[in-house]
Amino acid sequence: MLALGVMSSSAARAAVHADRLRVPAGFHISLVSDQVPGAREMTRGARGTLFVGSMGAGRVYALSGLDGPGPVRVRTIARGLDLPVGVAFHDGNLYVSDMRRIVVLRDIENHLDTPPAPQIVADDLPYRAGDHSWKFIAFGPDNRLYVPIGAPCNICDVGHDFGRIISMTPDGGDRRDVAFGIRNTVGFTWQPGTGTLWFTDNGRDNMGDDMPSDELNRLDRPGQSFGYPYCHQGNVPDPEFGSQHACGEFTPPALLLGAHVAALGLRFYEGSQFPAAYHNSLLIAEHGSWNRSTLAGYQVVSVGFGPDNRPQPPAVLVSGFRQGQQAWGRPVDVQPMPDGSVLISDDLSGAIYRLTYGPPPATQ
């Protein structure tokens, strides 16, 4: 099904080529909407509304009609924000991140056509001009909002002010440090059954095409440190800062995902539509490399777990966002749906796709 666009944008977008996407036998992928410029993190409201943050567009979108035969409607419910990448739905309210603060749109699903003005929840988050100030956010099983504070650089020693994950109550209070030594996480989620926090972390640049790897990390207790800026991928000392702390002082990654793949959003798949092998696996969007001599990433992968709950090597689930050295799409986030399908956001082409398994979906 395609969306009825009710907004316009001057943001430059790549052309959508959904017919180039490749999935394993039995899977199908279709375009939901190409009217979501800069589409980044996704979250689902209590009434089925899909909320989507954005990067350069500075907008937050609401997509309705996804659970029925269509058509899908796209609304802009906030604009003029500063890289509002992160969205999280909680108790009827939509929380949105920008570079220095968290805002909330109250009772949003009752006001999609006349959205309320954003109210500030937290306006004094650590900020330094540089990289990685955009924020993926999510509510945990403890009903606390989790927020990353990325490193404001490729590589620098900023102590505990940056390179961490914090949590807070929905009103922005009672802030707590969750984890340290994290360069740039743009995706985290909690494992069903265990409640364990898993997150991606993007490795530093300028150490070559194949070093260091992006990481999939598991938090076993609050306060763990994962090595940045002293150690990368659990066993590679940083050329500049590695002499200050040994890699053995830090928690190693649970799984290496590959150098420069830019692993971002991830979710556990709990649906029953996909084959049993995918149940409780992690689906991870790889945004793709930007400065590797041969492109890497630009795909969605699945990570299964062994009987000891150890993650297995990633398997490609959706590819085709690039042909050789030319990319037309960059997957950002994955959102499992109640019917067992999975939505995928693509910020380069401003699109949302739906991945299904079984008979081909009906077309509109």
What is the number of helices? 0
Backbone shape: globular
User: What is the average per-residue confidence, as pLDDT, rounded to a whole number?
Assistant: 94
Rg calculated over all Cα atoms: 19 Å
Widest sheet: strand ordering: 1-6-5-4-3
Please trace the helix and strand order, writing H or E for each element: EEEEEEEEEEEEEEEEEEEEEEEEEEEEEE
Please mark out the parts with pLDDT under 50 across 5 or more consecutive residues, or reply none.
1-11
Distance between the termini: 5 Å
Biggest beta sheet summary: 5 strands, mixed
Q: In terms of structural class, how would the helical and strand content be classed?
A: mainly beta
Residue share in β-strands: 35-45%
Total strand count, please?
30
Q: What helical percentage do the residues reach?
A: under 10%
Oligomeric assembly:
single chain
What does this protein look like?
A hairpin with a 4-residue loop joins strand 29 (342-346) and strand 30. The protein starts with a strand and ends in a 7-residue tail after the last strand. It has a five-stranded mixed β-sheet, with no helix packed on it. A five-stranded mixed β-sheet has the order 11-12-13-14-18, with no helix packed on it. It has a four-stranded antiparallel β-sheet with strand order 2-30-29-28, with no helix packed on it. Residues 1-11 have low confidence and may be disordered. It is built from no helices and 30 strands. With 364 residues, it is an all-beta fold.
